[in-house]
Amino acid sequence: MKKRQRKLISVRRVFDADNKGFIYTADLRFIILNMDCSIPRDELNELIMSTNLNQDRKISLQEFLSLLMPVKEK
């Protein structure tokens, strides 16, 4: 496992504090909107929905990593 991927897994654990193994899309949306990000809400929704491949409103570890890692590092 690459160093960047290990760091991202650690970050995900902050969002998944009770270790459910996923992050709800609503929680991720709230977090991103409350960071100083100037991403339009419709673009954020599109990003989250394209990441949540099985459309269960839960972002798994693999989906989370695919959201944050460039394609060449996967």
From TrEMBL:
Which Pfam families does the entry link to?
EF-hand_7
GO MF term set:
calcium ion binding
Source taxon at top rank: Eukaryota
Query: What range(s) does the EF-hand domain occupy?
Result: 39-74
- Span of the signal peptide: none
- Please name the InterPro entries in this protein's record: EF-hand-dom_pair (IPR011992), EF_hand_dom (IPR002048)
Record's protein name: Calmodulin
